[in-house]
Specification:
Helix content is 43%, strand content 18%. It is an alpha/beta fold and 275 residues long. Mean pLDDT is 82; it is low at 235-243.
Length: 275
C-alpha cells in the first residue's frame, strides 16, 4: 500500500480507443494500492474524441481531472502539465495506449519506503522492430552524453515522490523529457531503484513515438538539453544512490555524437519500415 495520496498522470494524444479503458482499469486497481488517488489525464491537442471521453469520466468522478492542450505540444509538455496539476504525495506516469497495466504498480509500491523513485523497465518490449532499434540507439546516446544508465530510460511507468518531482525545473517539450527528468533527479539527490514490468502490444490507435517528426525533434532537442544541463552545477557525490557520470565531453564532441547516433537511428528506422 502506498502511503498518502497518489496522482496518476496519463498523457494522451489521439487515444480515444484506449483512454476510457485505462481510466476504468485504474479505478479498479488503485483503491487496493493507494490510500487515496487522483487521475490526471492530459489531452495533448487530440483531433479525435479523447478530450470528450476524459471529460465524461471527470464529470462522473471528482477524482478524474482533465488537463487540456488546445494544440499538440509534445509528450514532455503533456507530462509537465500533469506534474504541475498533481497534488499527490506520489506521482505515477503511465502511457494511455494500454501497453502497460496499472496492476503492475504492485511491483513498485513496496519500494516507496526506501526510494524517492521506482522506475519500471520493460522486461520484454512489444513494439515494432524499428522503434525498438531506435530506442536502443537513443539509450546509448543518453548514456554517453548524460551518464544516464537506466535499463529503460523512456519506459513510461515510473513512481516518484511528488514534492521532489514538482521542485524540478523541467523544460523539455518532447521525448527528451525522460532524460531531463533523470538528470535533474540525480542532481537533486533523489534516490531510485528499478523494477521490471510487463509491456503489451498495442491493440488500438496509432503509435507516434517512432515517427519521423518525433525522431527529428529528439535529435534537435538533445544538444539543447546537453548544454542546458551541463551549465549547471555538478551533483553532490554524497546525495542519493544514483549519480549520472559525466562523459567529460566538449560541446562540439557532444553535438557530433548526437548527430551520428541520431542519423544512425533515423536510417535504421526508415530501412526497417520499408521491409
Amino acid at each position: 500500500m502506498i502511503e498518502g495520496k497518489l496522482s496518476l498522470v496519463l498523457p494522451a494524444h489521439n487515444e480515444d480507443e484506449n483512454i476510457g479503458q485505462v481510466i476504468e482499469r485504474a479505478h479498479q486497481v488503485l483503491p487496493r494500492l493507494a490510500q487515496s488517488f487522483e487521475i490526471i489525464a492530459v489531452n495533448d491537442g487530440s483531433s479525435d474524441n479523447t478530450a470528450a471521453i476524459i471529460a465524461q469520466y471527470a464529470g462522473r468522478d471528482s477524482r478524474v481531472r482533465l488537463v487540456h492542450h488546445e494544440i499538440n505540444q509534445g509528450y514532455g509538455a503533456a507530462l509537465r502539465s500533469g506534474f504541475t496539476a498533481s497534488t499527490g504525495d506520489w506521482v505515477m506516469i503511465m502511457d494511455s495506449d494500454r501497453q502497460f497495466d496499472i496492476a503492475d504498480l504492485v511491483y513498485l509500491a513496496p519500494f516507496t519506503s526506501q526510494y524517492d523513485m521506482v522506475a519500471g523497465f520493460r522486461k520484454q518490449r512489444n513494439d515494432p522492430v524499428h522503434r525498438t532499434l531506435f530506442g536502443k540507439t537513443f539509450r546509448l546516446a543518453m548514456k554517453v552524453l548524460f551518464g544516464v544508465q537506466l535499463k529503460d530510460i523512456d519506459c513510461a511507468f515510473k513512481l516518484m515522490r511528488g514534492d521532489l518531482l514538482r521542485s524540478l525545473d523541467l523544460q523539455s517539450d518532447g521525448a527528451m523529457i525522460s532524460t531531463e527528468l533523470m538528470a535533474r533527479w540525480a542532481r537533486a539527490g533523489g534516490s531510485l531503484t528499478q523494477v521490471g514490468v510487463h509491456h503489451y502490444p498495442r491493440t488500438a490507435g496509432q503509435q507516434s513515438g517512432g515517427s519521423l517528426r518525433v525522431i527529428l525533434r529528439a535529435m534537435r532537442d538533445v544538444p539543447i538539453l546537453w548544454f542546458r544541463v551541463h551549465r549547471e552545477h555538478e551533483p553532490d557525490p554524497q546525495a542519493g544512490s544514483y549519480e549520472p557520470r559525466s562523459a567529460g565531453l566538449s560541446p562540439l564532441s557532444a553535438v557530433l555524437i548526437v548527430m551520428i547516433l541520431g542519423l544512425l537511428g533515423l536510417v535504421t528506422s526508415r530501412l526497417v519500415r520499408r521491409q
